[in-house]
């Protein structure tokens, strides 16, 4: 069996699956016509960015395991401008539902990052400023970033995953995908300790 490894820039409003549940949501099938590949983890339908897909079930299982703890980095647009106290809480961990989040790398970006426009765009309010955070997590609970920013009083407006460990979007546009490079495959092999990847 030939293993396949791709990364996909998931647009807003696309489900991280190939089967359609409701007619209003697009799925991965609308963009990727490769048989038998499946996402490693997921992005919510209202989130954007990097999604890794493979037909290597052993690798998929290993990377999806919460104990694996690889870094995932997100660019997050939030309502209003977080103060130092909110940033510190995000960095040290916040109570979200029935758990406390692990420490995270969080920084307030000085300028808005250059990103493709979202379709549809976020709601614009002239009298309410927004800010962008870069957040790196080593865990992936359901809707975790959104729950974290809401817990400190700055709700998430837009969320884009830009990297999984050292694998990055590297110029992909929403709806585009590419094969992993040989160096990315080698990196996956090293971090997952799964034989037969390259």
Descriptive overview:
- Strands 1, 2, 3, 4, 7, 8, 9, 10 and 11 form a 9-stranded mixed sheet that branches.
- The chain is of the alpha+beta class.
- Mean pLDDT is 89; it is low at 194-198.
- The protein contains 4 helices and 11 strands; from the N terminus they run βββαβαββββαβββα.
- The chain folds into 2 domains: 5-67 and 169-192, Pseudouridine synthase I, catalytic domain, N-terminal subdomain (Alpha-Beta Plaits, 2-Layer Sandwich), CATH 3.30.70.580; 72-163, Alpha-L RNA-binding motif (Alpha-Beta Plaits, 2-Layer Sandwich), CATH 3.30.70.1560.
- 18% of the residues lie in helices and 27% in strands.
- It has helices at residues 57-64, 84-92, 144-151, 182-192, and strands at residues 5-10, 38-39, 48-54, 72-79, 95-96, 99-100, 105-108, 130-137, 156-164, 167-168, 177-179.
Full CATH superfamily name of the largest domain: Alpha-L RNA-binding motif
Under the CATH scheme, the architecture of the largest domain is 2-Layer Sandwich
The biggest beta sheet is recorded as: 9 strands, mixed
Question: Any low-confidence stretches, pLDDT <50, length ≥5?
Answer: 194-198
End-to-end distance: 13 Å
Order of helices and strands: EEEHEHEEEEHEEEH
**Number of DSSP strand runs:** 11
What do the pLDDT scores average to?
89
Tell me the overall shape.
globular
């Amino acid at each position: 069996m030939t293993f396949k490894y791709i990364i996909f820039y998931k647009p807003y409003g696309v489900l991280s699956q190939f089967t359609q549940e409701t007619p209003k949501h697009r799925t991965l099938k609308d963009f990727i016509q490769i048989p038998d590949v499946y996402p490693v983890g997921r992005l919510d339908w209202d989130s954007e960015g990097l999604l890794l897909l493979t037909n290597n079930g052993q690798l998929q299982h290993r990377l999806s395991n919460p104990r694996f703890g690889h870094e995932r980095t997100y660019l997050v647009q939030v309502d209003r401008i977080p103060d130092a106290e909110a940033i510190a809480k995000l960095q040290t961990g916040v109570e979200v539902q029935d758990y406390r989040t692990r420490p995270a790398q969080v920084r307030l970006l000085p300028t808005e990052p250059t990103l493709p426009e979202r379709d549809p765009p976020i709601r614009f309010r002239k009298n309410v400023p927004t800010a962008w955070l870069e957040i790196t997590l080593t865990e992936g609970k359901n809707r975790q970033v959104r729950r974290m920013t809401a817990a400190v009083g700055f709700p998430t407006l837009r969320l884009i995953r830009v990297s999984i460990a050292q694998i990055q979007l590297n110029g992909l546009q929403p709806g585009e995908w590419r094969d992993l490079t040989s160096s990315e495959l080698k990196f996956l092999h090293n971090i997952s300790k799964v034989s037969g990847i390259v």
